[in-house]
Amino acid sequence: MRAQLLRWGVALVTSALAVAGVPPAAEAGSTCGAGGVRAVWISTVENIDWPSRPGLPVQQQQREYRDILDDAQELGINTVMVQVRPTADALWPSPYEPWSHWLTGEQGTDPGYDPLEFLVEETHGRGMSFHAWFNPFRVSKQADPAQLVPEHPARQHPDWVFGYGGQLYYDPGVPEVRKFVADVVLDAAERYDVDAVHFDDYFYPYPADGAPIPDAETFAAHGSGDVGDWRRDNVNRFVQDVSERLDALDRDVAFGISPFGIWRNRSEDPGGSPTSGLQSYDANFADSARWVREGWVDYVVPQVYWEIGHPTADYAALVPWWADLVSGTDVALYIGQAAYKTGTTPAWDDAELTEHLTFNEAHPGVGGDVYFSARSLTSNAAAAMQRVAREHYGCRP
To answer: What is the pTM of this model?
Structure first.
């Protein structure tokens, strides 16, 4: 049911404006003529997309966000997925975690307004959907807890975290960690008019130079059997808990996850895809296929960040696999598109993205696309996205 509401959301907002006598194009901005979810990720970590650098004045932060929405709407985008918790910090006055230093330049410093409230209101005012994007377990892009503010939960509970690959992570094997992160997410979902809660692909960290994940003590305290199965169960418990708690809210908030594009290779699992790349099931213990089958998510956005014809992970092989996975379920499928790769190799010319969407049209299970990330839409992928807007979204940018 939440997935249906998500798909109808943009149409309902636009219809409401029309009923009220407000021309949508004039008051809310045009999203051109096509249907489906047409979304963009807006990254705050390392100031990839917004704000352009830490510590900007409030008016400049807000102006930059409005500019991003202007550019997105010109291309037919109707949904934004904004990273509101990039590194165990917050873009709202969270009772659990400190203000993000990506906003102010100093962790814990109040930016002087409520960014999440502004982001939601500005987005909805244009008839667009807002998905609050959370990175679940990453604590810091560096591995020294002493660089966090003293009141940070990672410093208050050193047994909750481990360093890996030069970064700091919450340990998903600690039951208190899973509950804590879910509490953080539900706080935002309950207090703000977000249309969806969205997770990216970072659960357990991706392998770093073959180093083992330092969770042996946690496994000894809380685990049994195969350590890989135990880690997947930890993630599954977390995903299920968030799903059930969102279901229990007195309003509809959809739940979506954007996993790595390969669940498992067919050579390892008969149910896997005809690929030969990194497997999220084994690499970061994300059993995305189970989340779909169990109905714990309302939508899934696999990051199919390869071109058509890629020898290891062919876009034309992965999209049908994901479409088959969601077939017969209530889970919607949107494809994560690597706009950031445009222009990086001969394979990623200005036609690649529009060819992806043409391919998708032959697979009715695909309900839309999400582009990574906002900055690319007006830089390296500008010409490619203009083709997408003209050829698929009925726009004339």
So the answer is: 0.93
